[in-house]
Design goal:
- This protein is of the alpha/beta class.
- The protein has 7 helices and 11 strands.
- The strands form 3 sheets. The chain has a 7-stranded parallel β-sheet.
Length: 200
C-alpha cells in the first residue's frame, strides 16, 4: 500500500479513551485533525471534549450525538468550541431544515442521498441556509469518488479517501494525490471513471 503524508486526517472516535488516542496521534504529526464521533457521545461529553480537542489542533467534530437527537444538538452548538457537522442526522434534502441552528454544516454523500442530482439540491439548500458543506463518501470505489468529486467546488471540506482503503478497487477515475488534492484524469468522458478488471 502506498504511504501518503496528508496535512489533514479524519479520526474515527467514540471509545472510552478518545482523548488519549488524540494525544498520542498529535505526537506523530502536525497535521490538522477532523473527528467523526459516529453518534457515540452525549451532549455534555461533546461540549467538554470540544474544548480539549481544540487544544490538540482538531478542526471539527462530525456527528457527535445520535441521529435523532436534534434538540440536544442546540445546546451542543451553543457551547461547542469546534464546528459541528451532521452526517447521520442529514440523509437527504428534507433533513437540512432540521440541522439549521443545530449544526454548523452537513456531510453530503451520494450513496446516502441518492446520486449527483439530489446531492446538488442539498448543496443549494445548504448554501441558502448558510450551512458549511462537506462532500463525503461511504465505502466505495473510484466511480463513486469520481462522481462526488464533481461537487468539490461547492465544499468547505472534502472526504474522498474511500478508494484508497480498498484492497481491490475495480474502477479507475479521480484520484487523491499525495498532497490530498483531487486529480482528475485526462481524456475520460462522463464522470471521468471506468471499470477495470481488478487491482491487486
Amino acid at each position: 500500500m502506498e504511504h501518503y503524508k496528508f496535512d489533514c486526517y479524519k479520526i474515527k472516535l467514540g471509545v472510552e479513551n478518545d482523548l488519549e488516542i488524540m494525544e498520542a496521534l498529535r505526537q506523530h504529526t502536525n497535521a490538522r485533525f477532523r473527528i467523526d464521533a459516529n453518534c457515540a457521545w452525549t451532549a455534555d461529553e461533546t461540549i467538554r471534549k470540544s474544548k480539549e480537542f481544540k487544544k490538540l489542533g482538531v478542526e471539527l467534530i462530525e456527528q457527535p450525538l445520535q441521529a435523532h437527537q436534534y434538540e440536544e444538538m442546540e445546546e451542543v452548538m451553543a457551547k461547542s468550541t469546534l464546528p459541528l457537522i451532521a452526517d447521520e442526522s442529514c440523509h437527504n434534502l428534507k433533513d437540512i431544515k432540521k440541522c439549521v441552528g443545530r449544526f454548523h454544516g452537513i456531510n453530503i454523500k451520494l450513496m446516502k442521498c441518492g446520486g449527483i442530482s439530489p446531492a446538488y439540491q442539498m448543496v443549494q439548500a445548504a448554501q441558502k441556509a448558510n450551512l458549511q458543506i462537506m462532500i463525503g463518501c461511504m465505502t466505495e470505489g473510484s466511480i463513486g469518488i469520481s462522481a462526488m468529486a464533481h461537487l468539490a467546488p461547492f465544499a468547505n471540506y472534502i472526504d474522498a479517501d474511500a478508494a484508497l482503503l480498498l484492497a481491490n478497487n475495480h474502477s479507475k477515475g479521480v484520484e487523491v494525490g499525495e498532497d490530498g488534492a483531487l486529480i482528475f484524469p485526462e481524456n475520460m468522458n462522463g464522470l471521468g471513471a471506468k471499470l477495470i478488471q481488478s487491482i491487486a
